[in-house]
């Protein structure tokens, strides 16, 4: 390890961390039918909290990570988050009912929420600006392969072992990352990290929880229900107060002032659209493949996994194209491809070949890669090193909030459309109605995703120039200096 450059050791640890955190965002999807049966859960709106609870916890605790890393040191916080995540994974495997599993998933999200931003901020500090696209090319592997491979890994574990191993698989990876971090990771603190912001934490946590609870209940009760309206309006109000408080707080938990940075703001909006569509699509597709088409968890994973192939196929070419083309056009194309794929999924039925769905997921992966690589490279182009920790927290909070929102909206919409068509998930007598419900959900969410393509126009190639065609100086073996265009 001592012969490896420090930046690549950091990249290795970041790959471990991001892979585990993102894997757990999707690996549970294929286990939903098994968990629903084992724990005798009746409705989709209840079982979705196994996924949404984890994503919500990620979104709530991500902002703390920026301050904690600056205050106590990125090495200490990274190791603490790894320990919490690994321990909570063990507890999830020991869950005795659906309530305990949801609680342990929330605890797992505490570790994951602090893990990802610290890993990214450490990575961006280790790589100079002119090498950010290279770092993005490295991170595209866990960022794309983990969510897409979650269903296939979950399917393998369910077929040959049990659902408990979906969580136990994190333990050896987490322990290995802890050992490497202890011996090789360098400490980094900021001279003026500020104070902890308890009001911001309380407002963001309660606002997000209230809003997502309202969405989860809307599918069963309708958006006009008093409880749905109460929690929904209350959630929006709490989040509005949160923004006001953070703007007036000298040392905010989540520095929303960073949204004054036009490039950072535009990239975050594009990322929100991307992850909303990603989270909702994976949730809906894995349910339809298992409940209505009768595929096993493993077969479902094999269908969805072609998306990872698409991302890997385009990742390295995209990192090179980015240096010439810039982020705006690449992101616009990627969002358009993703939205178009979503609309195509609204046309599938029980007669559609599984290979057709695999092909659609392959194309979806290409679109995702065209968004992921330029966003990872461009987002921090105009962010100062001192702001990197908290900027990373904001960016990752956006990702997890968008994913959890996507799952909650998809579950609510599916529940509503199932009721509209008089269908039940997995009931052979109502297959036709259930397929119509899935088609409606894919169509409506696909239109939202396609409309989100317009956000790419907000991204400035000129502002992202420091991460593109940068000229730098390398030293040749004979000490003669060579000017190289990276």
Written account of the structure:
This protein is mainly alpha-helical and 486 residues long. Helix content is 73%, strand content 2%. It contains 18 helices and two strands. The protein has helices at 6-26, 32-38, 44-47, 49-72, 74-93, 98-126, 132-160, 165-168, 170-184, 198-221, 226-248, 262-292, 297-304, 306-325, 327-345, 354-378, 388-420, 431-451, and strands spanning 471-475, 481-485. The protein has a two-stranded antiparallel sheet. It is globular. Residues 470-486 have low confidence and may be disordered.
What can be said about this structure in brief?
This protein has 486 residues and is mainly α. The chain contains 18 helices and two strands. The model is unreliable at 470-486 (pLDDT under 50).
Order of helices and strands: HHHHHHHHHHHHHHHHHHEE
Indicate the mean pLDDT.
77
Beta-strand portion reads under 5%
User: Strand count, sense and closure of the main sheet?
Assistant: 2 strands, antiparallel
Number of helices: 18
Supply the helix-strand structural class.
mainly alpha
Overall geometric form: globular
Identify low-pLDDT runs: 470-486
Helix percentage: over 70%
Number-wise, the strands total: 2
Ends: how far apart?
27 Å
**Rg, Å, rounded:** 22 Å
The side-by-side strand order for the widest beta sheet comes to 1-2
């Amino acid at each position: 390890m001592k012969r490896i450059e420090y930046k690549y050791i950091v990249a290795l640890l970041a790959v471990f961390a991001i892979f585990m955190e993102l894997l757990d965002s999707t690996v549970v999807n294929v286990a939903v039918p098994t968990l629903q049966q084992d724990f005798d859960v009746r409705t989709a709106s209840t079982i979705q909290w196994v996924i949404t609870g984890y994503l919500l916890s990620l979104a709530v605790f991500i902002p703390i990570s920026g301050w904690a890393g600056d205050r106590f040191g990125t090495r200490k916080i990274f190791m603490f988050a790894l320990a919490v995540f690994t321990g909570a994974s063990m507890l999830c495997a020991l869950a005795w009912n659906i309530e305990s599993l949801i609680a342990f998933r929330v605890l797992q999200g505490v570790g994951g929420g602090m893990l990802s931003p610290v890993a990214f901020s450490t990575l961006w500090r280790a790589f100079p600006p002119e090498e950010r696209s290279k770092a993005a090319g490295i991170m595209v592997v866990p960022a794309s392969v983990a969510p897409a491979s979650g269903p296939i890994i979950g399917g393998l574990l369910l077929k040959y072992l049990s659902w408990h191993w979906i969580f136990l698989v994190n333990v050896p990876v987490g322990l290995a990352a802890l050992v490497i971090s202890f011996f090789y990771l360098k400490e980094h603190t900021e001279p003026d990290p500020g104070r902890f912001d308890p009001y911001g934490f309380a407002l963001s946590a309660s606002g997000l929880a209230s809003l997502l609870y309202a969405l989860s209940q809307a599918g069963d009760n309708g958006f006009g229900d008093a409880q749905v309206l109460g929690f929904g309006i209350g959630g929006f109000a709490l989040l509005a107060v949160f923004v006001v408080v953070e703007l007036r707080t000298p040392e905010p938990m989540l520095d929303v002032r960073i949204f004054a940075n036009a490039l950072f703001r535009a990239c975050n909006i594009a990322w929100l659209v991307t992850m909303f569509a990603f989270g909702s699509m994976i949730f809906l597709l894995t349910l339809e493949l298992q409940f209505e088409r009768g595929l096993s968890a493993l077969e479902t994973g094999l269908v969805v996994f072609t998306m990872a192939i698409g991302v890997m196929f385009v990742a390295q070419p995209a990192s090179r194209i980015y240096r010439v083309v810039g982020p705006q056009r690449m992101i616009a194309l990627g969002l358009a491809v993703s939205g178009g794929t979503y609309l195509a999924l609204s046309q599938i039925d029980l007669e559609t070949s599984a290979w057709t769905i695999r092909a659609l997921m392959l194309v979806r992966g290409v679109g995702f890669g065209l968004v992921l690589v330029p966003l990872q490279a461009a987002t921090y182009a105009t962010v100062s090193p001192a702001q990197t920790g908290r900027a990373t927290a904001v960016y990752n909070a956006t990702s997890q909030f968008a994913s959890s929102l996507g799952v909650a909206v998809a579950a609510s919409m599916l529940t509503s459309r199932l009721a509209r068509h008089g269908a039940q998930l997995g009931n052979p007598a109502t297959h036709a109605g259930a397929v119509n419900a899935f088609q409606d959900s894919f169509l409506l969410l696909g239109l939202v995703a396609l409309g989100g393509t317009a956000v790419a126009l907000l991204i400035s190639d000129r502002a992202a120039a420091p991460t593109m065609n940068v000229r730098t100086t390398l030293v040749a073996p004979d000490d003669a200096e060579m000017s190289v265009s990276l």
